[in-house]
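Project outcomes to date are best conveyed with an example. Our students and postdoctoral researchers have been running inverse folding experiments weekly, and each run begins with a structure described purely in tokens. The record below, which covers 301 residues, was selected by the lab manager from last quarter's runs and is presented without edits.
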């Protein structure tokens, strides 16, 4: 069997976080799929931080498209439920990102409609598994490290807008293992900086505040608003990385706002999800300051 396999996942939830800009959706996988006369069970074994392949509609092209979506929940606690957060990219050739924000998606949800999700056949040909974008940790992805490694690590996660998606998957998985305290005496430590433009774009804000209260020794949540904020906003305001003359030798990257939040950055494994320009700016700023984190991985668009 060499052809690609897709299963129809029911669109069970559509939450608008910022009208016309950001939506969170949930897709429920069927339990089985019949292929060439054989019924196979479907197993959800996705690793936190990975993405699944779906076939949504394109608003501009009016064609079914193939798109990867990073998962925001995890199979450990939500087997068979694929959650993701999707934004309107406003790119010149934006297609599916427009469709996801439209009323047509709301109608599909009301009708109990489906979206095709790619699956693969197990090596022993006994079950189907949810296809995911990466089978190993690499510098250009955010697949969570093996369970023998992450419980002893100290992370700085920088999420720009919907870049929070893979980190939500990480955190929900880590919570299921008490942040690794069962494997390592102190467990892992995660500082999550979530930077968005306005308060309405904060994603899973209350859940993250609650997680910080529940695991104060292992998790720190620091939301940053860059465009507007309430008068009593107690967290970050403005950009955490700023272009400017910081060396006296012309254009540079000012990382002082970031280092004010995480002064021990060099003791951290840094992970970033955001635009390619933001990644490049962070790397340049670290180089200019001679600052060397324990490791650096990023997923960009």
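After processing, the design step wrote out the following sequence:
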């Amino acid at each position: 069997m060499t052809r690609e396999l897709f299963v129809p996942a029911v669109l069970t939830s559509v939450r608008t976080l910022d009208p016309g800009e950001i939506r969170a959706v949930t897709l429920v996988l069927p339990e089985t799929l019949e292929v060439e006369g054989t019924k196979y069970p479907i197993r959800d074994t996705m690793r936190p931080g990975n993405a699944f392949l779906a076939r949504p509609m394109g608003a501009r092209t009016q064609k079914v498209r193939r798109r990867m979506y990073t998962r925001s929940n995890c199979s450990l606690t939500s087997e068979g439920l694929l959650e993701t957060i999707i934004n309107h990219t406003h790119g010149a050739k934006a297609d599916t990102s427009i469709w996801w924000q439209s009323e047509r998606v709301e109608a599909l949800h009301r009708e109990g409609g489906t979206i095709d999700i790619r699956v693969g056949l197990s090596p022993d040909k006994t079950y189907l598994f949810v296809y995911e974008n990466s089978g190993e940790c690499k510098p250009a992805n955010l697949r969570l490290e093996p369970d023998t490694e992450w419980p002893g690590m100290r992370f700085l996660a920088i999420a720009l807008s919907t870049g929070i998606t893979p980190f939500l998957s990480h955190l929900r998985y880590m919570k299921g293992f008490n942040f690794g305290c069962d494997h390592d005496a102190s467990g892992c430590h995660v500082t999550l900086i979530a930077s968005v433009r306005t308060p309405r774009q904060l994603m899973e804000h209350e859940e993250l505040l609650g997680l910080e209260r529940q695991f104060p020794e292992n998790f720190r949540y620091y939301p940053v608003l860059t465009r507007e904020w309430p008068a009593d906003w107690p967290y970050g305001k403005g950009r955490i990385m700023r272009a400017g003359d910081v060396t006296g030798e012309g254009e540079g990257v000012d990382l002082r706002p970031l280092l004010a939040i995480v002064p021990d950055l060099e003791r951290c494994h840094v992970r970033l999800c955001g635009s390619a320009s933001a990644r490049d700016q962070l790397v340049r700023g670290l180089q200019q300051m001679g600052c060397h984190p324990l490791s650096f991985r990023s997923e960009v668009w």
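Residues 276-289 form the longest helix (14 residues). The first strand starts at residue 5 and ends at 18. The training component of this project remains on track.
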